[in-house]
Amino acid sequence: MQYEIPLLAMRIAATTLLFIAMWNIWTFRITPRFCAPFAFLFNISGIIFLTLGIKYEIFDLVRGGGVILFVSYILIISFLIDNFLRSRNDSKD
């Protein structure tokens, strides 16, 4: 089974997007809009890699899928917190 190249591509994309989002949040104090669609993409691909790794007992796929899922959940949590704070500030005004 050849899962190393897609896994490596998704891990690089997830890590790069996480660093871009962290820099954007640190600099502008707002979560970028592109985090939500990418979080959905990373969630689906992370689950696929995780299940394939468990099915074929390939530890690298399990670890890679876990990393992708972790990035996905961090992006989702950041996006939800930002929306909550924005709605709370809008209700004060």
Q: What characteristics describe this protein?
A:
3 helices; mainly alpha; 93 residues
Structure class: mainly alpha
Low-confidence stretches: none
Counted beta strands: 0
Number of helices: 3
**Outline:** elongated
Radius of gyration: 15 Å
- H and E string: HHH
Mean pLDDT: 92
Strand portion: under 5%
Helix content: over 70%
Major pleated sheet: none
* Count of domain modules: 1
Question: Could you please describe the fold and organization of this structure?
Answer:
This protein is 87% helix and 0% strand. The chain has one domain. The longest helix has 34 residues, at 59-92. With 93 residues, the chain is an all-alpha fold.
In short:
With 93 residues, the protein is mostly helical.
Q: Secondary-structure blueprint of this entry?
A:
Elements: H1 4-28, H2 35-56, H3 59-92
Helix pairs in contact: 1-2, 1-3, 2-3
